[in-house]
């Protein structure tokens, strides 16, 4: 197979490994040919699938840290295939987005999320608490720095498969590891992570066999030696399995842009979002294109519902205040929107007469401390006097929730 055009006629890393890759693609034991992207950064989804096709699974469980927003990581696609697992993400903003975008999976209990930076001191505790002695199928490590040291420090369990990022700039004979740094933040340079040779040696000490790397030269795949059999290529060395970083194929898109978890077995995907106190705003709901006509003063908008889940309600809270806005000047039109809010089977009806308004309803915070509470919203009617009926440039797209306060 001629890879010249595939590699954009550039010699990424070196012609030596381009020729080696051509030979590997002729041997079904090598993993590169099985790679494809669903939600992984590159082609890791396909390689992970092929590895487990060969060795099987036990519990279909995973632990992954360094997942960013969760939309592009090595275990997102596994959630769609009946897996469950733990994500650990240190960045607060990314954690908040995970909680929002994967709220259905979290509520169903197939995904647990922890907001913390992984260190050699806390990782065993998190894994032990989550796994509770259960065998883990997949461990994925991508923290742009201390990856080697974190894997080295894990001693609470031995997952069947480990996926770990390696520093693809360094040729396979180079044994290099960055010094451990608790406060490490990747600066975009090559002073991070570890070479494939260093990870190969570490894997051997921990009872793992290097089984392959992906074409983009980003991730290495290890399988516990007692599971390898004759499924994978030999020799299991970095010299035999190395791929250099090929920047021209890193981050290749496949299909439409992901925005949320799309699991079909979870109800209420549409219109569902979850409030966290550290968020600055929440999405709108009730989106409808409203063309004003002359058919009377009351223009009916099709009812649109949404459900919000609120947690972390203070024990001393006596009422919830919801700040909302609309995208038309209702007061100028001398109209109003009917907004219904249902909480604990009690329905409250509010007339929204301004483009920006705060509404409130009572609550006993002590009763709901530590619970996740659903609140249902529905917009029903848009009232506009007939004298504005000839204006066909008025469009109404719904109500947006800007913030929530507790008093």
According to CATH, what is the class of the largest domain?
Answer: Alpha Beta
List SSEs in N-to-C order. HHEHEHHEHEHEHEEHHEEEEHEEEHEE
**Residues in β-strands, percent:** 25-35%
CATH level 4 superfamily of the largest domain = Vaccinia Virus protein VP39
- Spatial gap, N to C terminus: 68 Å
CATH topology of the largest domain: Rossmann fold
How can the largest sheet be summarized?
7 strands, mixed
Looking at the structure, what is the overall shape? elongated
Structural class: alpha/beta
Poorly predicted ranges: 265-302, 388-395
User: In what order do the strands lie side by side in the largest sheet?
Assistant: 3-2-1-4-5-7-6
Work out the helix count.
Answer: 12
| Beta-strand segment tally | 16
Average pLDDT score: 78
Count of structural domains: 2
Q: Helical percent range? A: 10-25%
Please give the CATH architecture of the largest domain.
3-Layer(aba) Sandwich
The quaternary structure here is single chain
Q: How large, in whole angstroms, is the Cα Rg?
A: 26 Å
What's the topology here?
Elements: H1 15-24, H2 44-55, E1 61-65, H3 76-79, E2 84-89, H4 92-101, H5 103-108, E3 111-115, H6 123-131, E4 138-141, H7 147-153, E5 161-165, H8 196-205, E6 208-213, E7 219-224, H9 225-228, H10 238-241, E8 272-275, E9 284-285, E10 298-310, E11 319-326, H11 330-333, E12 336-343, E13 346-352, E14 356-362, H12 365-368, E15 373-383, E16 399-406
Parallel strand pairs: 1-2, 1-4, 2-3, 4-5, 8-10
Antiparallel strand pairs: 5-7, 6-7, 9-16, 10-15, 11-14, 11-16, 12-13, 12-15
């Amino acid at each position: 197979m001629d890879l010249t055009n595939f590699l954009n006629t550039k010699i990424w890393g070196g012609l030596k490994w381009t020729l080696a890759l051509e030979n590997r693609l002729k041997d079904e034991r090598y993993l590169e040919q099985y790679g494809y992207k669903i939600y992984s950064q590159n082609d890791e989804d396909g390689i992970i699938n092929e590895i487990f096709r060969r060795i099987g699974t036990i519990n279909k469980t995973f632990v992954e840290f360094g997942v960013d927003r969760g939309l592009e990581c090595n275990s997102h696609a596994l959630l769609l295939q009946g897996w469950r697992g733990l994500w650990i993400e240190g960045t607060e903003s990314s954690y908040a987005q995970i909680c929002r975008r994967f709220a259905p999976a979290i509520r169903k209990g197939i995904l647990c999320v922890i907001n913390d930076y992984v260190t050699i001191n806390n990782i065993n505790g998190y894994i032990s608490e989550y796994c509770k002695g259960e065998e883990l199928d997949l461990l994925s490590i991508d923290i742009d720095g201390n990856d080697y040291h974190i894997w080295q420090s894990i001693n609470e369990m031995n997952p069947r498969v480990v996926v770990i990022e390696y520093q693809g700039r360094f040729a396979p004979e180079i044994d290099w590891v960055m010094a451990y740094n608790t406060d490490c933040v990747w600066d975009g340079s090559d002073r991070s992570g570890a070479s494939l040779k260093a990870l190969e040696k570490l894997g051997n000490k921990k009872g793992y066999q290097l089984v392959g790397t992906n074409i983009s030269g980003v991730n290495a795949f290890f399988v516990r030696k007692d599971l390898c059999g004759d499924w994978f290529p030999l020799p299991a060395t970095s010299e035999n399995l190395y791929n250099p970083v090929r920047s021209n194929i890193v981050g290749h898109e496949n299909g439409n842009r992901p925005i949320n978890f799309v699991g079909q077995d979870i109800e209420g995907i549409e219109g569902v979002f979850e409030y966290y106190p550290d968020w600055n705003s929440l999405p709108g709901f009730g989106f409808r294109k409203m063309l004003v006509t002359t058919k009377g003063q009351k223009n009916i908008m099709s009812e649109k519902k949404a459900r919000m889940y609120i947690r972390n309600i203070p024990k001393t809270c006596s009422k919830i205040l919801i700040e909302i806005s609309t995208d038309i000047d209702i007061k100028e039109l001398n109209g109003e929107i009917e907004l219904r809010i249902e909480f604990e089977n009690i329905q409250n009806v509010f007339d929204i007469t301004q483009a920006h308004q705060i509404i409130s309803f009572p609550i006993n915070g002590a009763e709901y401390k530590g619970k996740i509470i659903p609140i249902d919203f529905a917009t029903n009617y848009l009232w506009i006097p007939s004298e504005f009926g000839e204006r066909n440039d008025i469009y109404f797209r719904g109500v947006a929730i800007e913030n929530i306060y507790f008093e």
